[in-house]
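Subject: Sanity check before I submit

Could someone independently write out the structure tokens for this chain? I want to compare against mine line by line before I put it in a report. The sequence has 372 residues.
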Amino acid sequence: MRASFTIAEILAACGGTLVRRGAWDAFCGVSTDSRTCQTGELFIPLSGERHDGHDFIPKAVSNGAKFIVSQKNIHIDGVQVIIVPDTTVAAAQLAQARWANPGAKLTNLAVTGTNGKTTVAFLVRSIINNAGFKCGLVGTVVYDTGSGLKESSLTTPDSLEIARLQAQMVESGAKYMITEASSHALSQNRLCCIDFKAAAFTNLTGDHLDYHKTEKQYLAAKTVLFENLSADSTAVLNKQSPASTEIAKKTKAKVMWFAVDEPADLTAQVKSMTTAGTVFELKYNGKSEVVNTPLLGRHNVSNLLTAAGLCLAAATATATPYDPGVNRRQANQAARIGNGVGTGELTARETRRLLEVRPCRPAEAVQATGLR
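---
Independent answer below. Compare away.
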């Protein structure tokens, strides 16, 4: 974490225009909450559904804020004012800068969609951890930084909290992060300064229309995640969701399609379902293996494919360290791929071993899968 920032560094991070100069030359923290803003901090007002954060600038100043990053030209004696086009974007930019750009030190993965995000996130964390690496998690149930668990307050927290969590992940030795990307967070630019190696889309149903008003606007919010992917990233899309076609049209990223019982880049052919679990044949890259998973139902087969697709795109999952069949050569291969070396190809047999690992502790599994 940076101890302080100068005006020049603030302007470099967010590209704003200094319109009011005060006596202070550096700030010691970033806040978006006027109630908790402290002396010497920079305050960024954000607009929500009910309130405009700019209305609370006087409160932040009374609590000690000496810098304001604003969309409106304001004048308060002794306070530095920087004007930006969008304070939500500036907040994300300054959050990353404040915590020494932790997002750039992680391989970042995301999953969005109406249903399945939490299960997929837990599965991805399990796959990466069982491949011998450490993966942080930000989601509905818990925030896992690799050094401890914190009960989550939001599915996707604000950009300041995300940067803080990423910094803790880096400090704990994590190399990867999986985050659930909610439509609210995407529409509010909470993830806009994170470079995602891969992002997955599960499905779209008519939820959250109280916020987005129409299904078209809801899909547009989800699509933001994929519009921001770079050309060398991967969009992992559910071929069986009609909304995926629209997303594919708007991303620069490579597209990996997945489907259950239909042809796709990554497929699963269900063989049986019982109360003991699900058996399916996994097909990828011209190879196939039978997977026996304790997770139940076709929706969880789809979730498993989503998680496998994300890890394939990140080139992480190669072998399960505690699996009796893993030898030193496989462990070395996992380390090489985890460091970004090698082809990143995952064999069907290795994928099967990873997917058959129980994804989380029993208490987590209940919450992640919804089983009771």
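---
OP: Matches mine. For the report I'm noting this point. The radius of gyration is 22 Å.
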